[in-house]
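Feature request, filed as a ticket because there's no other form

It would be nice if the structure record came with a short human-readable summary line next to the tokens. Right now we just get the raw output. Example of a typical job, pasted below so the devs can see what we mean:
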Amino acid sequence: QVQLVESGGGLVQAGGSLRLSCAASGSIFGLIRINTRGWYRQAPGKQRELVAAITSGGSTNYADSVKGRFTISRDNAKNTMYLQMNSLKPEDTAVYYCRSQSTVGEDYWGQGTQVTVSS
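Raw output as currently delivered:
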């Protein structure tokens, strides 16, 4: 079993930056099976959507709406994933969730962290 804990959310003005972190903990066997990790977000009244994802090999993909502004990274030694968010816009306001998927189909989600961007 793996637990995910997000941190780093908050209130920021448009044009500002935030850095989210997602720390994974739990059984060593669960942690080493993790392959793809990602950030998702859900705004009020909208479906949860993929923001960015990264594989254990470092391949990344981003939603078109955040390309060039957000950067996903991971530190495998610390079992931690990050999302650097720059040039934030009011439409980035949402609850941000981290997700980890393993090579054998295990699927873990964090509890979410609120990001609010004021205009």
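Something like this underneath would help us a lot:
Residues 97 and 111 are 7 Å apart (CA to CA).
The radius of gyration is 14 Å.
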